[in-house]
Amino acid sequence: MTGMPQPGQPRLPRVLSGIQPTADSFQIGNYLGALRQWLQMQHENDAYYVVVDQHAITVEHDPALLRHRTLVSFAQLLAIGLDPELCTIFVQSHVPEHSQMAWIMECQTGFGEAGRMTQFKDKSQKGGADRSTVGLFTYPILQAADILVYQADAVPVGEDQRQHLELTRDLAQRFNANFGQTLTVPKAMYVTDTAKIVDLQDPTSKMSKSSPAGCVFLLDDDKTITKKIKSAVTDSEREIRFDAEQKAGVSNLLTIQQALTGKSIERLVVDYADRGYGDLKSDTAEIVVEFIRPIRDGVEQLMSDPAELQRLMAKGAHKARATASQTLAAVYEAIGFVTLPD
Predict the structure, then answer these.
(1) Positions marked catalytic
(2) Is residue 46 left, alpha or beta, with left meaning phi > 0 and alpha meaning psi from -120 to 50?
(3) pTM of this prediction?
(4) Which has the closest alpha carbon to 198: 211, 181, 184, 183?
(5) For a Cys-Cys bond, which of 155, 216, 220, 251 suits 224, CB 3.0-4.6 Å?
(6) How confident is the model at residue 121 (pLDDT cuts 50, 70, 90)?
(7) How far apart (Å, rounded) are the C-alpha atoms in residues 157 and 162?
(8) DSSP element (H, E) containing 286
């Protein structure tokens, strides 16, 4: 069984989403905020999931580390349950059509339009405008190319990506107006069934790889996970109840449990009526350890067999190129490039 329609069946809606290989491991916030939805979407859509390694080089990086993180990221996507028979999983740099499409889209984008992207403003201010690369400036256009080259019908987005998707839609509409109907104008897919996980040491902040002590990574060992969760900041009260404003730390632990067990927050609160924070932390740690262990084991198995991992990468790249090359050929024809016979 595959995620593609059988002969005579209508094409499934096509979705695309990507993740950067900028850490040694994804963290549980990534999983509960996005990756868990990817698992469901692979059954209902023609889904394309990409490790966007080209986006990872817009800032200074270590080549050996990028190579390792790309492999580990790909392995984690498989280990969480993405199935190459149901969806297309691939690495961005393995599909040159991304870069070729990006140049076409750059030539459709106004300089001022690109300069208004808020993420570039934020990142360039942090690193200094003089040190910011042209790649950092244009990466929203590469992101648009990532989407348009697959003729995606929809893209799962969070609030921080809304502006980039609007740029993608504008570019597709502009291209179609200038050169004829060629590109699918993607819609935003706002996923509501997500769990917002915050930092274990600073519950006022989103869980992030930049705060290792407050972040549970999918490749952490059992002892490390347990230590992090048992050290989680709570408050000076004793009552276990859900109040994201006044009891952010306690609420965060309840949210993690709810997301991984399926129990309602209300049920969890009732279960802890006569128990303390120590019980809440111990139970949460046990639940997270049991959830992460098979993922970690799966990654270790995949990383121990480089030939198999690369075979699966090649399979994904081949499937992705089959689609991307068709789009690029249509774009080249529309824009007036001379094409050579096969």
Answers:
(1) 123, 206, 209
(2) beta
(3) 0.91
(4) 211
(5) 220
(6) low
(7) 6
(8) helix 277-303
